[in-house]
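Chapter summary example.
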Amino acid sequence: MEFTLQIIDLVEQTRRLGQAAPTLMSLITEVETVRAGEIEKPVRELAPIAVRLHGLAMQYTAQLAALSTSQYAAMKDGHQNLAELAKACAHVSFAATMCTFAIHRRTEVLLYEDGDETPKASRDNLKSAAEELMHAAKTYRRQAQRLSFRLASTPARHEDQQLIAQALAVTPANPEPRSSTAGPDRDTPGNPSTLADPSPAVAQQAAPARTAGPPKLNPAQHRALHLIDTSTVMYAQWPRKRPTVDTGSPERISTRTVDALQARRLIGRDVRTGLHEGQRLLLTTAGREALLRLGPAPEPGVPAPARRTGPALTR
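The structure predicted for these 315 residues follows.
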């Protein structure tokens, strides 16, 4: 079965992976607390834990499925990392089953005359559950650290961009047809207000249909995409004033470049702040995919010296 490689937000995925370990550790504490007692009310004590673990198993498996069809799979050691996450999902699922089984072993005395009246068997089940959760927590912590490093390291990020670009080049395209009832685009280059997405959250505009090759951008536009992806670039404008772009570094991005990238729906603005405060420029889904297809950005040019002003020199 063919599929299209999806470009997803790996920063958000890193956050989710990082949250898994403390969540599982807190459940281990709950399991050990119940295990230390007599488990006289097994359903009340263990059912909530089992339900939460089953829910987490489904959540983690859904994340695994999303990562497996995304650029994460094409990154360095992507398949090995997916295999480790699959094993972690199995650990959580097995722990949920062991908690449910612990309930059964504590209540089977009501079903069978020779049932064990002591909590020993249930405690053994809970010990196994805690061990499984510990294995899963260590895996998620390790995977979160690995992905965080790949995203933070410039050489690693460039290496992954090349691997992802190669994967995108061989992945069959699956463009979504545009509805015939859709009206013409209202975005017009030069109008800064068109950068803001009407959604109340982060401006992430709709991506155009994927194509087999990278978009045609000049070096300045390519470099601008890279800067917007790797640093905080702010777009600001006061009433009756020209808009300004602040990269926080000696490098510059012209408003003409911003308008050109906006016209192609490669960037948007975080509209949660006002224009006079400054709105952060962000890559859209199409922008992230374009950056991956284009590969490493060109090196920044030497900034032109400021033009000297003053009276003309005469002989």
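To summarize the output: The chain has eight helices and four strands.
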